[in-house]
Design a protein that fits this description.
It is a single chain. By secondary structure, the protein is mostly helical. It has one domain. The protein is elongated and about 50 Å long. This is DoxX family protein. Keywords: Membrane, Transmembrane, Transmembrane helix.
Length: 151
C-alpha cells in the first residue's frame, strides 16, 4: 500500500519533518545566551521561580529534588541536550532516541510551563512532530541511521 504525495515520497516528507524539527532544536540552542545560562544561571533561576509557584506539588517537589540542587549541571544538560537533539535529528543519527528524548524534553517544558500560554504552542507542536517522526520512522530516508543500517 503506497502513499501518494506531491513532489516527494511519504518517506522523504517524513525526513523533511525530522530535519525541520532538528533545525527548531538547533535554533533553541543557538538563541540561548550560554554565558548567562552557565555563569549566572539565568535559565535555571527562571525555571526555579516557575516551579516554586506551580499548581502541581509533584512538579514543585520534583524540581526541588532533581534540578534545584544542581543548577549549573542542569543548565549544561538543558543547553547541550537541545544541541544534541538538533544535530541528531538533522543528520538522522540515533534518530529514534533523539525523537523520544525530544518528546520527553518538550513534555517536561510543557508541564513546567503549564501557566505560560505563549510557550505551549511551541512545545505541543514539537512534541507532535516527534511522535509523527517516531511512528513514521523518519530515519529511513536521508539519514546516517539509514546509511549505517541502524534501526
Amino acid at each position: 500500500m503506497g502513499m501518494d504525495t506531491i513532489w516527494l515520497t511519504g518517506a522523504e516528507w517524513l525526513a523533511v519533518l525530522r530535519v525541520g524539527l532538528g533545525l527548531w532544536w538547533l535554533e533553541s540552542w543557538r538563541h540561548k545566551d550560554r554565558k548567562a545560562w552557565f555563569e549566572r544561571g539565568t535559565g535555571i533561576t527562571w525555571a526555579t521561580g516557575i516551579a516554586a509557584e506551580h499548581r502541581w506539588s509533584a512538579v514543585r517537589s520534583g524540581f526541588d529534588t532533581v534540578v534545584a540542587p544542581h543548577p549549573r549541571v542542569m543548565a549544561y544538560v538543558v543547553v547541550y541536550a537541545e544541541l544534541a537533539l538538533g544535530l541528531g535529528l538533522i543528520t538522522g543519527f540515533l534518530t529514534p532516541i533523539a525523537l523520544v528524548g525530544g518528546f520527553l524534553l518538550n513534555a517536561l517544558y510543557f508541564t513546567l510551563m503549564i501557566h505560560e500560554v505563549a510557550e505551549q504552542g511551541q512545545n505541543s507542536m514539537m512534541a507532535l512532530m516527534s511522535v509523527v517522526g517516531l511512528f513514521g520512522m523518519s530515519w529511513q530516508t536521508w539519514s546516517l541511521d539509514s546509511a549505517l543500517g541502524l534501526f
